[in-house]
Amino acid sequence: MKSMTGFGRYEGEFEGKKFHVEIHSVNSRYFNIYFNITNELNFLQEQLNNLLKNKISRGKISYKIIFSNNVGSIINKTINKSILKNYINELHSIKNEFNLDNDLKISDLIQLPDIFTTNSEELINSKLAKEILNCTEGALNNLIEMQVKEGEHIKSSFKKIIENIKKENLSIKKLQKRNISEHLNKLRDRVTKLLNIKKLEGSSIEKEIVLLADKLDISEENERLSSHIIQFNNYLEYYENVGKRLIFLLQEMLREITTIGNKANSSKISQKVVELKNQVEILREQCQNIQ
Q1: Calculated CA dihedral for residues 113, 119, 125, 130, nearest 10 degrees
Q2: Across the strands, what pairs with 20?
Q3: For residue range 56-75, what is the model confidence (pLDDT) as tens digits?
């Protein structure tokens, strides 16, 4: 079981230029990634996205590549002479048409759009791309290691809470045995007093009383809650893709607990139901941070 919260960092070097990759992850219902990289490295976004998505199922991911100091351009570029000639021709035409001074400088030309060009296919297969991808894997492994450690801590907490829920459910089962018996006796006493009947055994009224008492029966809800508790513990041993399953299971547990409270008609059981709901809510909040 892995947490969605984590941080990974890994250092790399390319042609003497040192850099490092940082990956932050926080909880989110879906997988979202935000890149903070220089425009020169945008050609790597698709590969980086696939790499991260293969290892992380859910979470809001922040990805950074940071180069040490001011290294300038990190990719070798060539001037597109065809585009440059078109610019020069157009600029000369404008100069002649409007009688402008001829102060065209190379420093001005290199600022124009699309003057420099790179080969995208060569970049994707370049040493720089491989170094960044290797560095990303290192940062990703460090991130996952932190997520696993946090996941183990959360799992330990979950086991304690779910054990408390299990104990409370067993306690409710014991209370319910007395609860039904007490309600039966109260109903019998009230009916005999109202109708002035000395004996109810075998009568149709007795059967109606038993049917009324059966409506208080919560044994099925107790059993389903016990089954959900077992399944919850099983899910805790899953490595990933467990967060949504746990949340769904907790919704089912809450449904059974609510039904127990509504049917039991017992102040003692109602007190335990309040505590059970509180415990389930704690689990639901923490499950928001599980992948």
Answers
A1: -30
A2: 11, 66
A3: 988 999 999 998 876 555 65
The residues pairing with 78 across neighbouring beta strands, listed in sequence order, are: 117
Report the candidate in 150, 122, 135 with the shortest Cα–Cα distance to residue 10. Answer: 135
Find out whether 19 and 13 touch, Cβ atoms under 8 Å. Answer: yes
Query: Residue 69 — left, alpha, or beta (φ > 0 → left; ψ -120 to 50 → alpha)?
Result: left
Q: Tell me which architecture the domain covering 6-73+119-147 has in CATH.
A: 2-Layer Sandwich (3.30)
pTM: 0.71
Q: Residue 8 pLDDT > 80, yes or no?
A: yes
Residues 122-141 pLDDT 10s = 555 578 888 999 999 999 99
Residue 40 DSSP one-character state = G
DSSP code per residue over 54-92: HH-SSEEEEEEEEESS-----S--EE-HHHHHHHHHHHH
Phi-psi region of 18 (alpha: psi -120 to 50; beta: other; left: phi over 0): beta
Give the integer Cα–Cα distance in Å for 56 and 30: 10
Return the domain boundaries, the chain. 6-73+119-147, 78-116, 151-180+217-287
Q: Where are the beta strands (DSSP E) in the chain?
A: 6-14, 17-26, 31-36, 59-67, 78-79, 116-117
Q: Which residues contact 276 (CB under 8 A, 6 or more apart)?
A: 165, 168, 169, 257
